[in-house]
Specification:
Radius of gyration: 24 Å
InterPro entries: Ald_DH/histidinol_DH, Ald_DH_C, Ald_DH_CS_CYS, Ald_DH_CS_GLU, Ald_DH_N, Aldehyde_DH_dom, cNMP-bd_dom
Strand order of the largest sheet: 16-17-18-15-14-19-20
Distance between the termini: 70 Å
Strand content: 15-25%
Shape: globular
CATH superfamily of the largest domain: Aldehyde Dehydrogenase, Chain A, domain 1
Family: Belongs to the aldehyde dehydrogenase family.
Helix content: 40-55%
Pfam family, one: Aldedh
CATH class of the largest domain: Alpha Beta
Keywords: Oxidoreductase
Number of domains: 2
Largest sheet: 7 strands, mixed
Number of strands: 22
Protein name: Aldehyde dehydrogenase
Bound molecules: nicotinamide-adenine-dinucleotide
Number of helices: 15
CATH architecture of the largest domain: 3-Layer(aba) Sandwich
């Protein structure tokens, strides 16, 4: 064991950057804490502009070789990465849970299999990408998907490896090289990914990982002139910084941001289903960008809904995320808990009523909270809390429901509970949202476009949309004449 390794539940994790196929340490470090009990996991290399520049240099140097690697070979290596993820699934699951506090059972059965799937899906999709050639007055048009160059990928802490690989996989599949900067509150699984990728035969410099703070190494990466794409998942304020830096170099950016999504419950809905959908919004302790945190219920069923919701939410077990029977783990960090509690206490001071919760628990746990008596223009209705805090408002007509649903600056997702197909179609057509779920929630398929409208994001990821972003499309027009072999 060296100074540069920490151990989580017997799993060794290198605490250094991964640049040009080598581990690189920084002079400075930052402390990584476990949200489960606040214990120190270790000291992680704290990158600066120097490591950012080195990583971009490595990505730039590796680009021509990787871009020229036949698509089938790139796909084969990405499948080998997926194999490695599957082989180390238990390690990845326990390290991620210890690092960010999300449920071990979700990591084992949902999230980490999905990480492997990200690599398999984009490897396979790459091989199916295409456009039929077409003819213009006897000239052939051929559209090709050229890799763009070094890509900087910046990711948040709420689903660290899943969100990172959702970008890494298509960027690499397309033939680009990557510099990934994971969030400083959950840096560990990215380091394991470096080990897995190296073992899978990904050439040195194709994937680089730098650790550290956004304002330091992150901002140096997004303002680097040799970067050809920036893909970011995180908060709106950070997105504005990144978009401004990118603008200076005209670097294309993809932004997946926050939300304040509505769950519309109509009187004609299956109320038990609607309650299940509402309680599901506490998943991952509410730290889900897509969470439908604004429950809008038709007035005639609001009392019944609230009472069934309260009964159901009382069954949720909050506790150690490593315990299979736990439903809600801790929040990520003391700062995040303060932020959550600040939102709730200000809402209560402004007249909101906590039907359940409304307070902190032990350590970094926040009691699942439902607030009523909230005004549409209040902070608690308009701003993303990113914790287990839901609001409930009522409506008396479909028009009012749609108006309330659309009345925030966000537009990431919306969920509808209704028994009326015509209503579902009518309402869906009017909602501003990148994803609408009808009588379901969180059914996700990588073939679908994913992203947000308004302040929830710019661009879409998934399927061909990911390759639209990570490729420079080229149309080659070839004349029928001028060929020596035709005389
Ligand atoms: P954040 O914006 O604070 O940080 C995200 C990442 O950006 C981190 O890696 C951070 O180090 C980096 N960063 C910070 N400042 C930077 C700068 N100036 N330059 C470059 N990089 C910088 O977000 P967070 O708190 O980690 O994540 C929570 C947010 O992410 C929530 O708003 C949530 O809704 C959003 N989110 C969105 C999606 C989506 O797909 N739409 C998914 C998950 C999370």
């Amino acid at each position: 064991m060296t100074d540069h390794t920490l151990t989580v539940a017997g799993v060794a994790v290198d605490t250094r950057h991964w640049i040009g196929g080598e581990r690189v340490a920084s002079a400075e470090t930052f402390t990584d804490l476990s949200p489960i009990d606040g214990s120190t996991l270790g000291e992680i290399s704290r990158g600066t502009a120097t490591e950012a520049a080195a990583a971009v240099v490595a990505a730039k140097a590796a680009f021509p070789g990787w871009a020229a690697t036949p698509a089938a070979e790139r796909a084969r290596i990405l499948h080998a990465v997926a194999d490695g993820v599957e082989k180390r699934l238990e390690d990845l699951a326990i390290v991620e849970t210890t690092d960010n506090g999300a449920l071990l059972r979700s990591h084992r059965r949902g999230v980490m299999p999905r990480v492997a799937h990200n690599f398999r899906f984009f490897a396979d999709w790459l091989l199916r990408l295409g456009h039929d050639d077409f003819d213009t007055r006897g000239h052939t048009n051929h559209v090709s998907w050229d890799p763009a160059g070094p890509c900087v990928l910046i990711t948040p802490w709420n689903a660290p490896l899943m969100l990172a690989t959702w970008k890494v996989a298509p960027a690499l599949a397309a033939g680009n090289t990557v510099v990934l900067k994971p969030a400083e509150w959950s840096p560990l699984t990215a380091s394991l990914l470096a080990d897995i990728a190296a073992e899978a035969g990904l050439p040195a410099g194709v994937l680089n990982i730098v650790q550290g703070y956004g304002a330091e190494v992150g901002s140096a990466l997004v303002s680097h002139p040799d970067v050809r794409r920036i893909s970011f998942t995180g908060s709106v304020p950070t997105a504005k910084h990144i978009a401004a830096s990118a603008a200076a170099n005209l670097t294309p950016v993809s932004l997946e941001l926050g939300g304040k999504s509505p769950l519309l419950v109509f009187a004609d809905a299956d109320l038990d289903l609607a309650v299940d959908l509402a309680v599901e919004q506490y998943d991952n302790a509410g730290q889900v960008c897509l969470a439908a945190t604004r429950i809008l219920v038709e007035e005639s069923v609001a009392e019944e809904f609230t009472s069934r919701f309260t009964e159901k939410a009382a069954l949720l077990r909050q506790g150690d995320p490593r315990d299979e029977s736990t439903d809600i783990g801790p929040g990520i960090h003391a700062r995040q808990l303060e932020k959550i509690d600040g939102f709730v206490q200000r809402a209560v001071a402004a007249g909101a009523r906590a039907v359940i919760g409304g307070h902190r628990g032990d350590g970094l746990y926040y009691a699942p909270t439902l607030l009523t008596d909230v005004a549409q223009d209040s902070e608690i209705v308009q701003e993303e809390v990113f914790g287990p805090v839901l609001t409930l408002q009522t409506f008396t007509s479909e028009e009012e429901a749609v108006r309330l649903a659309n009345d925030t600056r966000f537009g990431l997702a919306a969920t509808l509970a209704t028994g009326d197909r015509e209503r579902a179609a009518r309402v869906t057509a009017q909602l501003v949202a990148g994803t609408v779920w009808v009588n379901c929630f969180f059914v996700r398929d990588l073939q679908a476009p994913f992203g947000g409208s308004r302040h929830s994001g710019v661009g879409r990821e998934g399927g061909t949309w990911s390759f639209d972003f990570y490729c420079d499309l080229k149309n080659t027009v070839t004349a029928p004449k001028g060929w020596r072999d035709h005389g």
